[in-house]
Specification:
By secondary structure, the protein is mainly alpha-helical. The protein has two domains: 6-95, no CATH class; 101-159, no CATH class. Helix content is 62%, strand content 6%. It has six helices and two strands.
């Protein structure tokens, strides 16, 4: 957590250097892991998109001094760094990136499927639930976000 923890005791120049190293490492590691994940699952499945949570802010500032001016941004910056790394990996691989607002996943899936939200919630919470733990609220949200993306991709293919 370089923004929220490690860089706080450093001067701006050293903090920026630390964050640049962490961002580069996160980007390289994420790219490598996403490539490996795709290679592992592509014999059985084709990866067509990536759905991730919409960042709390539209942009991650380049300079830590800007981040330090907002405690809310400081708390969000580390997560945003990893969201950017996932987005960059998707872009490198030609995978469409979908940003989903937290709490809107079920409604978005319902809209894409043209179903009532209650039906999507029932499927996600009961019928479509993978076997075994864990199955938290965050897992259900991610599952619904994936359903929305797949429904949209399918709709786009039908229109082509």
């Amino acid at each position: 957590m370089p923004y929220h923890h490690e860089s706080l005791a450093l001067n701006i120049e050293d903090a920026n250097a630390l964050i640049a190293r962490v961002r580069q490492s996160a980007s390289q590691c994420t790219s490598r892991v996403v490539r490996q994940l795709i290679a592992d699952i592509e014999p059985a499945y084709r990866v067509i998109a990536l759905a991730i949570r919409e960042p709390a802010f539209p942009k991650l500032p380049d300079c830590v001094s800007v981040v330090r001016k907002s405690y809310r941004l400081q708390c969000a910056a580390d997560g945003m760094m990893y969201q950017l790394a996932l987005g960059n990996a998707a872009d490198e691989l030609g995978i469409k990136l979908h940003l989903c607002a937290r709490g809107q996943e079920m409604a978005r899936a319902a809209a894409r499927l043209q179903l009532p939200v209650a039906e999507v919630e029932l499927f996600v919470n009961v019928y479509g639930r993978p076997v075994g733990p864990p199955w938290t609220e965050e897992h259900r949200r991610a599952y619904a976000a994936g359903i929305a993306v797949l429904a949209e991709q399918h709709r786009l293919q039908l229109q082509s």
